[in-house]
Amino acid sequence: MPQAPEPSRTPRFNWRLGSMLVVAGFLAVAAWRSMAPSSAAEEARLVPPPAIDQQSEAGMEVAVLAGGCFWGVQGVFQHVEGVINAVSGYAGGEQATAQYQRVGGGSTGHAEAVKITFDPRKISYGQILQIYFSVAHDPTQLDRQGPDSGPQYRSAIFPTNVKQAEIAKAYIAQLDQAHVFKAPIVTRIEDGKAFYPAEAYHQDFLTRNPSHPYIVYNDLPKIEDLKRLFPAVYRANPVLVATAGVGN
To answer: What gap in Å lies between CA 50 and CA 167, rounded to an integer?
Structure first.
């Protein structure tokens, strides 16, 4: 079945649409990427692991994270061992406004977010956050990531339990005190916010569209950074929503 057409992204729409229409521009970007594979919209760095963490023997656990466009964040965690599923969606606002075109206006309270279901016997919540801060986005950018700006692209953690909130708050304080980044971390911790899955055409977007100019420039480098910085948990074959479904 053909994919549904993508609605306009605001404010990303003009940049991406132009990239898709100008083939020569895409080829130039691809050539530049081949010469400078370590460059990306957000610079990756290996941050230290959290001093406070929890490795559980319980069943599946869920983390909800926002860090700019959900395509790249989803793509990163789909390549992490121990992750059972990673679903693109919205968090921070009301269910009635959890729609792509409305969220893109920046006034719904939602952030583009990813719901990550993981096996805590294989990877801890703290390790999930370490990857989030190291590879998935730049936590020092306020209400923006790369070419995208607005509160819907903010850096935010949506804890699903009290322990996650404690670990996240302590970890941000730890990284700030160690001056790991050149600027303070602006990641918000937003408790008690529900997650709503995004439209089907946003799911598995990176895997389904590896030649999309936005993916080539902004997101594929994150996958390479994950492989380089976290080889012990990197897996080549991603877990996909197409297989796991949005409810897991």
So the answer is: 8
Measured CA to CA, the distance from residue 240 to residue 165 in angstroms comes to 27
pLDDT tens for 193-238 read 999 999 999 999 999 999 999 999 999 999 999 999 999 999 999 9
- Give the list of residues 6+ apart from residue 13 with CB closer than 8 angstroms, or none: none
> In which domain, by residue range, is 234 found?
13-244
Q: What is the pTM of this model?
A: 0.85
Instruction: Give 132-159 pLDDT, tens digit per residue.
Output: 999 999 999 999 999 999 999 999 999 9
The 3-state DSSP class for residue 219 equals helix
Can you tell me the distance from the alpha carbon of 57 to that of 26, in angstroms, rounded to the nearest whole number? Answer: 47
CATH of the domain at 64: 3.30.1060.10
Instruction: Kindly list the catalytic residues.
Output: 69
**Residue 8 within a domain:** no
CA distances from residue 184 to 6, 51, 135 in whole angstroms, order as listed: 35, 19, 17
Beta bridge partners of 62: 117
Distance CA 151, CA 147 (A): 13
Q: What is the CA radius of gyration of the chain?
A: 17
